């Protein structure tokens, strides 16, 4: 079983400076590479303390690429709707070269209305732009020259530079939470899947994952070759009480910044994001305790966490946990302790 870490910045200036957060994350990534973690992932968000310290995953992951040897680098996720496909495809190809073929390209649709507003993209065009851009990027990676006339972008005799290292192209991942079509789109195209259990509706997410695996096989892809990465909060200590208290403190700050970001959903609905206003209301009402109880976090002693991982596998089948161990404002000893305890006392139970 493989394990990864993910960096989703969610802090205010009184918790940490952005530069200090980057410094801690880079050091954690180097140690994760040494300890045998499989992947490191970061997000693309803008304008809010929730995620906004990471507006360009490729820049951040390039710094990690220069400091590591073997760990996979995942954009989790870049937002095609906000970028020209040729520009984004080139950025990702550059990262694939910087890392000598360690890129996994994760794409998402975004969901914060403010981001769409600032970038001048109607939320009603979200899915069409998402699918058109990914299709164009994949063709530019594979074909020597590309001619495509799309609804939103046109490519005339385009030779993307640099060329990707991995052939035919880097693995593609799709971020999906509560829109079934995203799961089915990923399955039909042979793309891997990134999910966030704490943000999904209990029960529904498991149904969508089962549908993804079924449609994957029905679409002619090798059954069992699909990969699913599960984003989880993670806080490990030798004493359960210490782990619970530490997670409570930093997760509350995360939820506060999330609340600030999603207030723009109030009074909004979108047929491109069915049920999102209810999902946002549910997240605003959640607590760190509820997240743990509902299986959205690995928190406790190594024994506790091992059982929580088994429960996650029971819910979703074969997975790669991608764990958020640094929230911004996390102390070095907290974040590195979780990193080390997972590698020394949890991983061996799943190898």
If you had to describe this structure to a student in words, what would you say it looks like?
The protein is an alpha/beta fold. Helix content is 46%, strand content 15%. It contains twelve helices and eleven strands. The strands form two sheets. Strands 1-2-3-4-7-8-9-11 form an eight-stranded parallel β-barrel, surrounded by seven helices. Strand 5 and strand 6 (154-158) form a beta hairpin. The radius of gyration is 19 Å and the shape is globular. The model has no long low-confidence stretch (mean pLDDT 92).
* Mean of residue pLDDT values: 92
Q: Can you summarize the main beta sheet?
A: 8 strands, parallel, barrel
Strand content: 5-15%
Task: Give the H and E element order.
Answer: EHEHEHEHHEEEHEHEHHHEHEH
What's the total helix number?
Answer: 12
Share of helix among residues?
40-55%
Determine Rg (CA atoms, Å). 19 Å
Number of distinct beta strands: 11
- What structural class do the secondary elements suggest? alpha/beta
Low-confidence stretches: none
Q: How far is the first residue's CA from the last residue's CA?
A: 6 Å
What spatial form do the alpha-carbon principal axes imply?
globular
Q: Identify the strand order in the major beta sheet.
A: 1-2-3-4-7-8-9-11
């Amino acid at each position: 079983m493989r394990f990864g870490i993910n960096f989703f910045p969610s802090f205010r200036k009184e918790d940490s400076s952005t530069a200090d957060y980057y410094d801690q994350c880079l050091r954690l990534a180097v140690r994760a590479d040494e300890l045998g973690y499989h992947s490191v992932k970061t997000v693309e968000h803008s304008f809010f303390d929730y995620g906004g310290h990471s507006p360009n995953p490729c820049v951040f992951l390039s710094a990690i690429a220069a400091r590591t040897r073997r760990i996979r680098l995942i954009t989790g996720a870049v937002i095609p709707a906000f970028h020209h496909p040729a520009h984004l495809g080139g950025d990702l190809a550059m990262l694939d070269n910087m890392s000598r073929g360690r890129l996994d390209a994760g794409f998402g649709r975004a969901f914060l209305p403010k981001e769409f507003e600032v970038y001048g993209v109607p939320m009603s065009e979200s899915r069409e732009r998402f699918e058109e851009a990914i299709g164009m990027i994949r063709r530019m990676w594979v074909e020597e020259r590309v001619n495509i006339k799309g609804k939103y972008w046109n490519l005339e005799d385009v030779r993307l530079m640099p060329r990707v290292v991995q052939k035919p192209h880097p693995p593609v991942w799709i971020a999906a939470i509560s829109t079934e079509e995203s799961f089915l789109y990923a399955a039909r195209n042979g793309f891997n899947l990134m999910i966030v259990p704490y943000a999904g509706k209990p029960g529904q997410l498991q149904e969508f994952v089962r549908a993804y695996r079924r449609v994957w096989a029905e679409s002619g892809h090798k059954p069992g070759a699909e990969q699913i990465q599960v984003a989880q909060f993670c806080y490990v200590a030798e004493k359960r009480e210490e782990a619970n208290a530490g997670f409570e403190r930093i997760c509350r700050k995360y939820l506060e910044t999330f609340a600030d970001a999603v207030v723009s959903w109030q009074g909004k609905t979108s047929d491109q994001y069915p049920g999102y206003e209810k999902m946002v209301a549910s997240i605003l009402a959640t607590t760190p305790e509820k997240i743990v109880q509902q299986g959205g976090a690995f928190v406790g002693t190594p024994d506790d966490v091992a059982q929580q991982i088994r429960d996650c596998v029971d819910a979703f089948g074969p997975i790669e946990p991608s764990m958020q161990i640094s929230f911004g404002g996390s102390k070095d000893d907290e974040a590195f302790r979780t990193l080390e305890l997972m590698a020394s006392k949890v991983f061996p139970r799943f190898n």
